């Protein structure tokens, strides 16, 4: 953030020098950003990767809840939190071809929940495996049953032309496009990225896992792919990064398995 702020200010002052000629030189030319000490605890949480045992414990705890699909889509598809909540079951899932399209992310804007473009406009369609596909199928089936159960009292979700999300009872006609968000309560009530904070608190306190955050699911997804030989370009496109540098520096961590594999590769090569 500090580097970006300096870049913006320096660019503005360069413009003031030439062509505007308001000032003679750019004072930012002499600015150096000091080295900021790394908080070891914060770095540990940022780089945290789930073990499979931890993942199974979390999954068992939230099976059958509205937190299940945001967890599954983070782990099995590497989606960001906002992208997980931005899934529209009606349009974004192709059950026949086993693909998931990332077309939106959910955000709070001007005190309203909206569906906007994914980060960096990283629209993408990715292949998904049977675990996530079956979870999505079960949610669609469950959603239809709940609509029949609640009848006119079921809360349907609609997307206005400006991207604003609104809800209304099933017996009320709304002149907007109907969507099926991936994470709603039994009655159809919308849940949001803010709602997910409760899930995180339970994992921290009840499951004794203080390092967990939704983004670690994305870290874990990318690292498992790297550990098992996925091509970096494929990982980059799957995660929706704007360049390969982000994938390699932030999401493909130098795990013990990767280090061991490097040794094995070298030993085989010299033999």
Automatic annotation (TrEMBL):
<dbReference type="GO" id="GO:0015074">
    <property type="term" value="P:DNA integration"/>
</dbReference>
<dbReference type="GO" id="GO:0003677">
    <property type="term" value="F:DNA binding"/>
</dbReference>
<dbReference type="InterPro" id="IPR002104">
    <property type="entry name" value="Integrase_catalytic"/>
</dbReference>
<keyword id="KW-0233">DNA recombination</keyword>
<feature type="domain" description="Tyr recombinase">
    <location>
        <begin position="45"/>
        <end position="264"/>
    </location>
</feature>
<dbReference type="InterPro" id="IPR011010">
    <property type="entry name" value="DNA_brk_join_enz"/>
</dbReference>
<dbReference type="InterPro" id="IPR010998">
    <property type="entry name" value="Integrase_recombinase_N"/>
</dbReference>
<dbReference type="InterPro" id="IPR050090">
    <property type="entry name" value="Tyrosine_recombinase_XerCD"/>
</dbReference>
<keyword id="KW-0238">DNA-binding</keyword>
<dbReference type="GO" id="GO:0006310">
    <property type="term" value="P:DNA recombination"/>
</dbReference>
<dbReference type="InterPro" id="IPR013762">
    <property type="entry name" value="Integrase-like_cat_sf"/>
</dbReference>
<protein>
    <submittedName>
        <fullName>Phage integrase family protein</fullName>
    </submittedName>
</protein>
<dbReference type="Pfam" id="PF00589">
    <property type="entry name" value="Phage_integrase"/>
</dbReference>
<comment type="similarity">
    <text>Belongs to the 'phage' integrase family.</text>
</comment>
